[in-house]
Amino acid sequence: MIHNFIISGNIADSEGRRATPSIIAFTKSKHFVGQAAKDQIAVNPRNTIFDTKRLIGRRFRDVEVQSDVRDWPFTMVDRGSSPVPEVDGRSETKQFTPEEISAMILTKMRKIAETHLGQTITNANAVTVITVPAYFNDSQRQATKEAGLIAELNNPRVLNEASAAALAYGFGKQIEEERDVLVFDLGGGTCDVSLLEIQNGTFKVMTTAGDTHLGGGDFDQCLVRHFLSEFERKHKRTIKANSQALCRLRSACEQVKCTLSSQTKTSVQLESLVEGIDFNISITREEFESPCKNLFSKAECLVEQVLKDAKMDKSSVDEVVLVGGSTRIPKVRELFRSFSQEQVTRSVGPDEADKAVAYGASVQAAILQPDAPSNISQNVLLLDVAPFSVGIEAANGAVATLIKRNTIIPTRKSTMFTVHSNKISVFEVHGKSWITFDIDANGIMTLSATEAGSSKTGTMTIFSDKGRLASEEIDRMLREATDYQEAEGQNDHILTKISALPFTNSAK
Ligand SMILES: Nc1ncnc2c1ncn2[C@@H]1O[C@H](COP(=O)(O)OP(=O)(O)OP(=O)(O)O)[C@@H](O)[C@H]1O
C-alpha cells in the first residue's frame, strides 16, 4: 500500500501477519477471514471456502472447475451457469458467488490498510490496484474488478501479477542498458511467466504465458492422493468420504511439501485420522516429486513458450526473477538449471518471493494516483500485453483474429464485417458494419459495432450477456456485504465467439 507516497508494500495486520490467506469460513453466528478461517478448517471443512481465484469469472461446467469440485470439501452449486459455493449460514443454507467471497477478502485488506493509516480511505479519486494472474481472461478480470466494487474499493484497477513482480524487481534501480528479464511466478493456485524489457523506468512486457490452474494447491493435492492410496493399502479402507479427515490430511500435506523444500525427508503423524486409526508415514523429497512430475513439466513448458514467442533463447535472458511461495520447491528451481547462476536473481529472492507482487502493486497504485508526484508518475511506465488473441467467429465458422496475443494494451482494432441477418440480439446493426474491439489497460474488452453510412451503434462488454454481473446485482451484493460483516477477531488462442452475431467476415 502507499501512504503519502511512501510505498510500503506488505503491511501487517493487527496480529503482525504480512499475508492473509484467501480463505473464508462460515459458522452459524459469524464468518472468519484469512488465518482465523484457515485455523478452523479441519473442524469446519464444509463451510470453509478457499481457492476462489480458481472459480472467479468461470463457468460451472468448465473442466478445471469440475476437477476442483471433486477435490473440495465444500458444496458447489451451478447457479445460472456460475460456480457458486454453498454454506450453512446463520439460519439457512446460503450461497455466495466467487465475487462476493473475493469481496469479503478485499474488505479485510481495506480494513487492514485503514487501521494502518488510522483513517478510512475516503478519496474518491484514489485508485486501488488488485493483482490477477497475467493469464486471466476477460471474464475473470471483470469479475475481479466487480469484487473490488463490492468491497467498496475506489476505482479498482487490475494488474498482472508477473508485471507487478517485475515492477518490484526494477523499481528504484538504475537500469540504463536494456535488460531482458524473465519473471516466473508460481503461487498457491496459478503460474505466470512473463518476459520483459526493462530500461530507464520503462517495463515493457514482450510475451506472457500462464496456467490459471497450476500452483501450490496442486502439489498439495498430489501428496493427498499419494497418502490416500498409502492409507488404503495399509489399512484396507478409504477416508475419501470423511471431509474432516481429508482436511487434516490436506493441511498436513502442505506442511510436508514446505518441509521438503529444505529437508530431504520428513514424516506425517496424524493421530486418530479415521475410526481411531493413527496415520504415521515418512516421505522423501523424491517420493514427493515423482507424482508431481507433470506439474513440473507444465511449468517448464510455459517458460519455453514465452521464450519461443519472443524468439529468444535462454542465454539472451539477462535475469530470471522467481516469485511466489511455490518457487521455494527445489525441483521448481531446478527448472532453471540451464540458466546460469548469475541469471537467476536473488534481488527478489526466496525470502521476498511471496511479497514481490504486493510491493509491485503498490508501485503501480502510486503511479496511477491522480496526485502522484511526477518523480513516480513520469519516471515509471508499465506497458503490458493482451494474453490472448481476440477474434470473431463468423456464421460459416471462419475466424478473423483482430488482436493478436502479446499486443501491447490498451489497444483498439476495427474491421468491417457484413452482417447478413436483420435481427441481431445484441446490436441493432446490419449490412456493412465496423466492428471494434477495445482492450483497456486492465485487459478488459469492449466490443462495439457501427453500421457503415448510418449513426446506429452499439457497445457491449464481452460476455456481459453471459454471466457477468449487472450493476443492480453489484448494488445488491454491496448491500448484502454490509449486512454480513466479518466477525471480530488453453492455450494460446482464445476466440471470442459471439454466436448472437451472425456475421459474415468480409475483413481483408
Ligand atoms: N517453503 C515452501 N515450500 C514449498 N511451497 C511453499 C513454501 N512456502 C510457501 N509455499 C507455498 O506457496 C504457496 C503460496 O504462495 P504465494 O503466497 O505466493 O501464493 P498466492 O499469492 O496466495 O497464490 P497465487 O499467486 O496463486 O494467487 C502455497 O501453496 C504454499 O504452500
From TrEMBL:
Its EC number is 3.6.4.10. The keyword Chaperone applies. It comes from the Eukaryota. The keyword Nucleotide-binding applies. It catalyses: ATP + H2O = ADP + phosphate + H(+). GO terms for molecular function: ATP binding; ATP-dependent protein folding chaperone. Signal peptide: none annotated. Belongs to the heat shock protein 70 family. This is non-chaperonin molecular chaperone ATPase. It comes from Penicillium atrosanguineum.
